[in-house]
Amino acid sequence: MTFFILTLFQSGYKIRTSTLYHLLVGKRTSSVLLHGFFYHNLIYLGALPNLQDADFQRELKKLVAADWIIIDKGFGMLTSRGKRQLAERKYDLNGLDNLRYGRTRENSWQLLLFAVQVISHLSYGKKEYIPIENRPFYLQQIKKWLVGSGPNLVKHFQQELLTIFQQLPSEEADFLANQFSGYDFQGKTAFQLLPEKYQNAPWNQLFRQHAIDLFLAQVKKGELARLLSALDQQNLNKSMLKTREYFLAGKTEAEILRLRHLKQGTINDHFIEWALLEKAFPFERFELLEFNQLSSEEVLDQRYQEYDIPYLNFRLSQIYYLREKQWT
To answer: Is the pTM for the entire model greater than 0.90?
Structure first.
């Protein structure tokens, strides 16, 4: 756990430690989301929902005692010794995306495991077997999915799975595929399949989240998308989606405020979350500040009170510049 907390300071910037904790346990305010984005930690949003603040503070004290970080007035910053520690150990969690998949990742993966078992037995014409799931939600989703399926469901489902696994790194593909159960084969538990490097907490949780997210990111159409679509929609803020729908239909920010009877702060939150979720966000429809002469650190240090521009436009300007210009 101690080394993981150290990685949260890898940007080298001063980071408010209380906001880091809120990020890890999944507090989804726009200030927490922006903090995660600015300091390269957004992928960990809600990654450790059961983390106690006392445990988090204890880990921070260990880092300070080791001279890996310094903390001053609630802000932590990486030291040169801490930087050397980070250089010695690498954990690849590329693809982890708790902002996009964190809400329903577990349910989506469990539904997929169940679907694999069902399809496997269907492919052999077997109807008598002990299902890995008997909870009403999963039974209902599978039944609804099967009823809406065409005659080539088995073939298409198998092909989609094969295509996705061919696109995943071998370590993650093996970890996920070997959890499947079906006709005449029994899957292993995630714990049994974890690579040795990731067997200690919290890396065991993070590797599993990362592997599933890599898979889910490839589900774009077909039978898998139809199976998971209801759960996938639950990953997203419904109120934000409504604001997005109005805006894409041509409504202005002022018109959306009037139509939805929402406060300006709520609308701001919707647009910020949308901008962080989608690289195709329509930045061109907003008046943005020019930060071309500033470094990333200088952009992060800017305060919206210093500009004659609404708060939302200021934050969108930061997101656009850091993502589209500086971090590409």
So the answer is: yes
